Amino acid sequence: MAVQLIPSAADRRLLDESRGPRTMMWIMAIMLFLTVLAGALGLATRSAVVLLDRQLAGRLTVQIIEPVTAKRDAEAEATLTAVRRLPDVARARMVDRAELAALLRPWLGADGADPDLPMPALIDVDMRRASDMAVARVAGAVAAVAPAARIDRQESWMSPVANFMTMVTGLAGAMVALMAAATAAVVILAARAGLETHRDTIEVLHMLGSTDSQVSRLFQRRIALDTLFGGVLGTVLAGSTVVLMGAQLGALGSDLLSGLTLASEDWILLALMPLAFALLATLAARVAVTGALGRIL
User: Fold this and answer.
1) What CA–CA distance (Å, rounded) separates 184 from 201?
2) What angle in degrees, to the nearest 10, is found between the helix axes of 212-252 and 154-197?
3) Domain range summary for the chain, segments of one domain joined by +
4) Conformation bin of residue 150: beta by default, left when phi > 0, alpha when psi is -120 to 50
5) Where are any strands of DSSP class E within 23-106?
6) Residue 123: which of 99, 158, 155, 159 has the closest Cα?
7) Where are the beta strands (DSSP E) in 51-188?
8) What is the Cα gyration radius of the chain?
9) For the residues 184-202, what does the mean pLDDT come to?
10) Structure-model confidence comparison of residues 49 and 2, the more confident one
11) 53 or 232, which is more confident?
């Protein structure tokens, strides 16, 4: 399906009723603006989910909840020593009380640093292997020295966040698909409207020997150029918006939100969207025009 992208002067006079910017181009600019934003959201949340899984996979938190301070400290030291001996454990460290106080400050204020405040001892554990058997071995070693200790897998309590972000990724993908379908529908409506507008001219072309395929290529070329130019404009505006939003998210200082980033291959995919939509619009125009010409002429 060969489509000449640079129209001749005769073709422009034949089908272009306006020399200024056409409405179709601005519609496509809006469509691509929204599509690229949705695509950027989906790609960024996918990257954040991958980063979250990588960071939390195999991370455990051991809580020593013994109320007696001296006994709690002794159990914490014994637990730390026992856990570090396990071959499945890559790293284990005691969480400093000052760190716990900082975590509690938003809820308790300055009382979070009160030395008389009963506070469990926490041990962060990084596993070499995140299998259930490896976690069970850690749990057995902890139970041997601190029977009342609790072990939490960080990925378990963050799984609702990961599930939500996965859902957002799916919704963004669905939005891109819907925008592509809407683009095809707009192209079909525009092509049929163009046929009705230039019906008399097309009849003359047929009498002069032009085929349906030749007439169809005139509409394909025009729609492809409008989609491509409008798509590039919309993509540039959407890309600028994404960069601005990324800078604002980075300024928040949130570890979770900082994972909403786009890799180089993600930017390449977004940059190819105008071309993909131009090809889609060309195909939709060909199908619409060829089918309509067979019915009305």
Assistant:
1) 25
2) 150
3) 9-54+159-296, 66-148
4) beta
5) 59-64, 89-94
6) 99
7) 59-64, 89-94, 121-127, 150-153
8) 31
9) 77
10) 49
11) 232
